[in-house]
Amino acid sequence: SLPESVKCPDISNESVTGLRKLWQDPTIKAAANCGIEYGLNENAIQCLKFIDVLTHDDYRPTADDIIRCCAQTPGI
Predict the structure, then answer these.
(1) Residue 35 counted as domain residue
(2) What SUPFAM superfamilies does the record point to (predicted)?
């Protein structure tokens, strides 16, 4: 996990609510399934999928989380 000295920016409740609603939209999920065709970043899709986990007060990133967020996605 990250050291205590590393601070992540806060995200507003309105933004979290908006992201949840966005991910519930079937059109967004369909677009995410065709992400490469639309040039969608895999990391952004992961954030939408796991928005509830990522925004929980007790969330601490795992080593896998850090690797995933730093991994470059192949370009088109």
Answers:
(1) yes
(2) Transducin (alpha subunit), insertion domain
